[in-house]
Amino acid sequence: RCAGRVEVQHDGHWGTVCDDDWGLPDAAVVCRQLGCGAALAAPPGAWFGEGSGPIWLNGLRCRGSEERLVLCRHRGWRPHICAHEEDASAVCSGGLAVLMLTPASLPGAPTVRLVGATGRCAGRLEIFHAGHWGTVCDDLWGLPDAAVVCRQLGCG
């Protein structure tokens, strides 16, 4: 129950969420709403399979601190022009005790670390991608982004 395709119910019908603009802050809200811990990944491209029915939400812009997905900015509740091959997914920390995620095991599941400071919960953010560690640019970086990383690393 803590990893899969994201679906929402609207007007009594279940539908999916398009992965346009989908990211870790959005997955963090889904994980929180389901009581599934921190968001580990926000895989695009129907990673857990294509859904059916309407695609209710598109262009979600969560800050990552919202309690429920419906509180995030989006392009409105309506069937969107988006293919089910773009259904959004979330992977949360809860219920994954046996599953070890590595950078190669799941597209969109980056491994992150903080380096250059004392302790594991402070430092410069690096992300593992394509077999290498790299620094994350701070353009448009803010406290909501830092909060997602802190939760992902189990730092509060």
TrEMBL record:
<keyword id="KW-1015">Disulfide bond</keyword>
<feature type="disulfide bond">
    <location>
        <begin position="31"/>
        <end position="92"/>
    </location>
</feature>
<feature type="domain" description="SRCR">
    <location>
        <begin position="112"/>
        <end position="156"/>
    </location>
</feature>
<dbReference type="GO" id="GO:0016020">
    <property type="term" value="C:membrane"/>
</dbReference>
<feature type="disulfide bond">
    <location>
        <begin position="18"/>
        <end position="82"/>
    </location>
</feature>
<dbReference type="InterPro" id="IPR036772">
    <property type="entry name" value="SRCR-like_dom_sf"/>
</dbReference>
<dbReference type="Pfam" id="PF00530">
    <property type="entry name" value="SRCR"/>
</dbReference>
<dbReference type="InterPro" id="IPR001190">
    <property type="entry name" value="SRCR"/>
</dbReference>
<feature type="disulfide bond">
    <location>
        <begin position="62"/>
        <end position="72"/>
    </location>
</feature>
<keyword id="KW-0677">Repeat</keyword>
<feature type="domain" description="SRCR">
    <location>
        <begin position="1"/>
        <end position="93"/>
    </location>
</feature>
<keyword id="KW-0732">Signal</keyword>
<protein>
    <submittedName>
        <fullName>DMBT1 protein</fullName>
    </submittedName>
</protein>
